[in-house]
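User: Write out your own:

AI:
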Amino acid sequence: MPLNTGWNLISLPLSLADTSLLSVMSSVGDDNWTSVWSYDETGWHRYDKEGPSFLNDLYIMDAGSGYWINMIADDTLVITGSLPEPTDITLREDWNLAGYNSLESMATLTALASLGDNWTSVWTYDETGWHRYDKEGPPFLNDLTEMGSGNGYWINMTSADIWTI
């Protein structure tokens, strides 16, 4: 998966044999990235090569989670693995940084159908900027029409649920 200079919001659509962060990032040139960040119910987690190592608390990268990767130069992240089993992702009430556990792209509303009315908006970020689908906002602003493999997503939930892709 291509990683562009600057911030990249990604996910791992496959389950990997070795989920250690440094193993996952091994295909990316060591001088081409500086940090990887994730967010869960306990807050932000990071692995920052340039910061104090005692602040690093992110050592594993799993399918189903979203990750921010800060790149100094363009590069490619190569991953090999198998489809996650199951592909269910637990989402809590409020904001969730989640991955997309599928190799098949899907229309946003179809991809989120298992969540019923328990979500309000979903956002992603790529080299062109932010994209969103907000059920409560003006429809003409909804430019996130499809969810795809390798992308990370911020999903705002009104109550906890299981996302089945």
